[in-house]
Specification:
Helix 2 (17-24) crosses helix 3. The chain has helices at residues 6-12, 17-24, 28-35, 43-53; strands spanning 4-5, 60-61. The longest helix has 11 residues, at 43-53. With 63 residues, it is mainly alpha-helical. It is built from four helices and two strands; from the N terminus they run E-H-H-H-H-E. A two-stranded parallel sheet has the order 1-2. The radius of gyration is 10 Å and the shape is globular. The protein has a single domain, classed as Orthogonal Bundle (434 Repressor (Amino-terminal Domain)), CATH 1.10.260.40. It comes from Streptococcus equi subsp. ruminatorum CECT 5772. Keywords: DNA-binding. Residues 6-60 form the HTH cro/C1-type domain. GO terms for molecular function: DNA binding.
Length: 63
């Protein structure tokens, strides 16, 4: 089982923070805060991240 940080998911998809944020439906500032562990996404947002990047929520590292 592979596990990924949000930054790794974004980089593997060759996306800028602004592009990843747009796909998930949040601001670039919000995405940046998630990557820098200053804030954390809601369950609904985690579901969207999983859908956009094609990974299970269990595969995403938030801490």
């Amino acid at each position: 089982m592979n596990r990924y940080t949000l930054k790794a998911l974004r980089a593997n998809a060759n996306l800028k923070q602004s592009e990843a944020a747009q796909k998930v439906g949040v601001s670039t500032t919000t995405w940046s805060k998630w990557e820098n562990k200053k804030r954390f996404p809601t369950v609904k947002q985690v579901e969207k991240i999983s859908e956009v990047f094609g990974v299970s929520y269990n595969d995403i590292i938030f801490l």
